[in-house]
Design a protein that fits this description.
It is built from 17 helices and 28 strands. It has 602 residues and is of the alpha/beta class. The strands form 5 sheets. Strands 1, 2, 3, 4, 7, 11, 12, 13, 14 and 15 form a 10-stranded mixed beta sheet that branches. The radius of gyration is 24 Å and the shape is globular.
Length: 602
């Protein structure tokens, strides 16, 4: 809420929320040197961020950007030259696959922008500490990882045991795109909520919001009002203000009075490709600097494109024409089939309540494994860290956070509820399925940065689930670049990793070290296949005396996977023989093995 100057000790006099233009919102309420929080619900971008870049282009604003997932468009603020530091969880691309981004890599390597890495839960918990005015919040994440070196993390002995603590993270101002505002300034947002609204409540000065629509009264939708007017500085009515992100207006029984729209995936992909080439400056000029205002930006997108995004929110996606693939399984597909088998088996053996999978290959394998377990009568919920609980994935759409999965969820929540209360809850038996850029002989996983090499992407929710789930299953194509003797940076500790499934065989944790326990079938003699696996591993891999052979992968197996990913974005191209780039992408979430000490037994 905006305030005026008052005598010392007096209560500030409230002012009405400022309903203003986009340029006015930034110029009035964002100041050089601010810690600017870009709040992420299911809408992951905002016209306000684009306006911030325009107004501070090549100006020494020294902003600290607090943003959970930067994605490709985060590169806009880096190229604007207005950042000195980033506090984040994920610095990479999300579409079409999860990969590092060279703009972030260059800025971090040169020191032009400082980066502070957290997991999703600890990022949210730091904002919660600020919002509630406490000196620290207890966390179960980050321990035994390299993130314990962050100044805002400590472990202390208390009368209740040893606990991890995270210090408050206090933004000066929060930027958000909400679906609807009323004329008092209350903001309504439908779940799933991703990081939730705690950052809006933590900001020193308050919130600037774009909205699809301003209505007279939000009381008919009071259950979806998430940010009270008392925290709001300014509101801009900006239809499609989340583009290229989308807006979910809620399920059919509790829908806000706006039309939703899906994410503009081709635009995200174009931004990613532009950021990798010599034409990025031209792209920035075309889409960020030259449109004089939001209306000009929408005009450039065109009515047909925008209406297509609206139609996309009204039904399941249509698989791309000609995307159906044939041919033998790729290396990534073989690994995914065997992971699906293992997921199905472990659900049956443990009576697991939930499976949470990282994005990409691990996610697709989990979808198949959970589907098979449900068909066999097991009551297991598929979860996604965005805030989805017990959802059914949509064929033809391989993206874990696809809007098409929202309506099928039995609960729409946020990251803190999914990761903190359900998947990692004391009375839920959970399995995590994740990928890894690097994994060492003890199961430690690195998805953040290569020692002496490039930055990767960060933790996402990986550390949270790998540290706290009952068991973790890892997937990846076998190779010395991924399977290394020791991780120089530990994003997620290996304490709960149960097995690592690859295209050449399965490694199982035994006495704290990964051992080859299952070998891929093949025409070569067993000794040759074992020697090949050991040659592709970066340490002296031990072989179980009870080595078993995995079953052959069938056309039906591959067809089940490809139904979710018909273009092979994560599964690799049908004719490719080498490990695919998609399988080397780093998932946002990762899970973990080993039973929680206080987990219930059946």
């Amino acid at each position: 809420m905006a305030t005026t100057a008052t005598p010392a000790g007096a209560e500030p006099a409230p002012q009405a929320v400022d309903f203003c233009r986009l340029d006015e919102a930034i110029s009035r309420y964002v100041h050089p040197g601010d810690a600017v929080h870009v709040m992420m619900g299911h809408s992951r971008w905002s016209a306000l961020v684009r306006e911030l870049a325009r107004q501070y282009w090549e100006k020494p604003a020294d902003f600290t950007l607090i943003m959970a997932s930067l994605s490709s468009l985060g590169a806009v603020l880096f190229r604007a030259g207005c950042l000195k530091k980033v506090v984040t969880v994920y610095s990479g691309d999300s579409f079409p696959v999860f990969t590092p981004n060279p703009v972030f890599q260059e800025a971090y390597a040169s020191g032009a922008v400082e980066v502070e890495n957290w997991s999703f839960l600890t990022f949210i918990q730091r904002l919660r500490a600020a919002a509630t005015g406490v000196p620290a919040v207890v966390t179960g994440s980050v321990r035994d990882s390299s993130m314990t070196e962050n100044e805002a993390y400590q472990e202390v002995d208390t009368a209740f045991g040893r606990v991890g603590l995270v210090a408050p993270l206090v933004p000066d101002v929060t930027l958000v795109h909400a679906a609807v505002a009323d004329r008092q300034g209350n903001l309504a947002i439908a779940p799933p909520m991703f990081e939730g609204v705690v950052g809006a409540l933590a900001s020193r000065r308050g919130v600037i919001a774009t909205v699809e629509k301003v209505v007279d009264d939000l009381r008919p939708w009071s259950s979806l009002v998430r940010i009270p007017a008392h925290r709001v500085l300014g509101i801009v009515e900006a239809p499609f203000g989340a583009h290229p992100g989308g807006v979910f207006p809620g399920p059919s029984g509790a829908r806000l009075p706006v039309r939703g729209y899906v994410e503009d995936v081709p635009f995200w992909v174009a931004a990613r490709e532009a950021s990798r080439g010599p034409d990025f400056e031209d792209w920035l000029r075309e889409w960020v600097l030259e449109p004089a205002d939001h209306e000009s930006y929408l005009a450039k997108l065109g009515t047909a494109r925008l209406q297509g995004l609206v139609r996309g929110a009204e039904g399941p996606p249509t698989p791309p024409a000609g995307a159906e693939r044939v041919g033998p399984p790729t290396a990534a597909e073989r690994a995914a089939v065997w992971l699906a088998d293992l997921v199905n088996r472990r659900i049956a053996e443990t009576s697991a309540d939930t499976v949470l999978a990282g994005a990409g290959l691990a996610n697709l394998a989990a979808w198949v494994g959970v589907g098979q377990a449900k068909a066999a009568g097991h009551r297991v919920a598929l979860a996604a860290e965005l805030g989805l609980w017990d959802y059914t994935p949509t064929p033809g759409d391989p993206f874990i956070f696809s809007f098409s999965n929202f309506p099928s969820s039995s609960m729409l929540l946020d990251t803190e509820q999914v990761l903190g209360n359900l998947v990692n809850g004391a009375f839920f038996r959970s399995i995590a399925c994740v990928g890894a850029a690097q994994i060492d002989r003890h199961g430690n996983i690195n998805t953040t940065k290569i020692e002496g090499g490039p930055y990767l992407v960060g933790s996402g929710g990986g550390n949270d689930v790998i540290t706290n789930a009952d068991e973790v299953l890892v997937v990846g194509t076998m190779g010395r670049r991924r399977f290394i003797d020791k991780c120089g940076y530990v994003t997620s500790p290996g304490r709960r990793v149960r097995a690592v499934v690859t295209d050449l065989g399965t490694l199982t944790m035994q006495d704290g070290e990964l051992v080859l326990t299952h070998i891929a079938p093949g025409p070569e003699p067993l000794a040759e296949r074992v020697a090949h696996v050991r040659d592709q591993c970066g340490w002296d891999l031990s072989v179980s005396p009870h080595l078993e052979e995995l079953r052959p992968v069938t056309a039906a197996d591959v067809g089940e996977l490809r139904a979710y990913d018909p273009e092979g974005l994560f599964l690799g191209r049908a004719r490719a023989q080498a490990p695919q780039p998609a399988s080397d992408s780093v998932p946002i979430s990762a899970p973990n093995t080993e039973r929680k000490e206080n987990a219930h037994t059946r």
